[in-house]
Amino acid sequence: MPGGMALLTTSGIDMRNTMMVAALVSIAGCATTPIPTENLVDVPHERVLIANYMQQNDAFGRVIVKRDAGVVGSACDIRIYVNKDFVALASSGERAIMYLPPGDHILSARTNSFVCGGGLVEARTTVIQGGTSTWRMSFTDGGKEFMLQPTAF
């Protein structure tokens, strides 16, 4: 009997280890999920640092920077920059709708905590008067890579 008990205990430990490994593997394969722009909420006013960028202007173009939903990276907000100006802090499932003058602009994003990793990512966007460009901030491969990219979603 004692041998059988030891076998049960070992099996219990093996089962727990197997379950932990399975959970880690499932998280490691996770990526965030794009959300249609109309289903997102705006970054709240208290997390908008430069409100002028959010003022609609018919002479400008519209740039939407949106944050995916998902568990990966959800513990950290993301800083949104335009031409080095820290404009807003976005949480999961939020968007910043900005109005920029026509021409080239550099969009940047970075997580606000080392916990989420990611580092600074940047991209150039060309704004056209009356036009709209939409950008997606996402995590891939279990949070190993943080991206800022144009999106059709």
Structure, explained:
The strands form two sheets. The protein has a five-stranded mixed beta sheet, with no helix packed on it. The chain is built from one helix and nine strands. The protein is an alpha+beta fold and 153 residues long. Helix content is 18%, strand content 38%.
By helix and strand content, what is the structural category? alpha+beta
Measured by DSSP, the beta-strand proportion falls in: 35-45%
Q: Number of DSSP strands?
A: 9
Question: How far apart are the termini?
Answer: 61 Å
Low-pLDDT windows of residues: 5-10, 17-30
> What kind of sheet is the major sheet?
5 strands, mixed
Oligomeric grouping of the chains: single chain
Order of helices and strands: HEEEEEEEEE
* Arithmetic mean pLDDT: 80
Number of helices: 1
Radius of gyration: 21 Å
Shape: globular
Features:
alpha+beta, 153 residues
